[in-house]
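hiii so my PI (J.) wants the whole complex modelled not just the main chain, which honestly fair. so below is everything: two entries, each one labled with what it is. i double checked the lines twice but i was tired so who knows lol
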Amino acid sequence: GNSVTQMEGPVTLSEEAFLTINCTYTATGYPSLFWYVQYPGEGLQLLLKATKADDKGSNKGFEATYRKETTSFHLEKGSVQVSDSAVYFCALSPPRSKLTFGTGTRLQVTL
Amino acid sequence: GAVVSQHPSRVICKSGTSVKIECRSLDFQATTMFWYRQFPKQSLMLMATSNEGSKATYEQGVEKDKFLINHASLTLSTLTVTSAHPEDSSFYICSARAEGAAGSPLHFGNGTRLTVT
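here's the output for the full assembly
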């Protein structure tokens, strides 16, 4: 079946530090991959996506590259801000199938 | 971008009463909407897939008689928690996918915090 594995949190960083949140997946076929962000008390917002191998999704300084050879979609940001503190979910969606989420990684950025 | 509106954002109800949560796609049509439940510090659990004009498809372990889903139009799905109990207290989130190219992302509502006293 399909599954997504994320690194356990919480991840605590100082402002302007480099961020990496690891995400690996198993899936049949060729899924699309997503990162969603959830701020406290809110629903999920799409952060970025990639629909095929070697695609790079990017938004708000965050990036993730669809690596089929390593079945990974790691999230990176060069310089985090306090406002980036949230829970980040990696997810996959094979064609015509439901979305599968990872367990989420909480990021806490301090001054 | 696509917007999904969920209402109410918070609701407190007494044990034994029913609560209805609405999910609307504001600028696109959604033949399929999804209802999730999120426990504190945990990921989202898919409860059911709401299909316009037909019965919802429930995930294993989700009581269909307790969580009634109605998808009356291409822009509205409702989740009714019937005879609510304190253990139903949770964060409920709906989502919808704009129809189109493969890989279209889900758009989420802002969630409903349900507290049953």
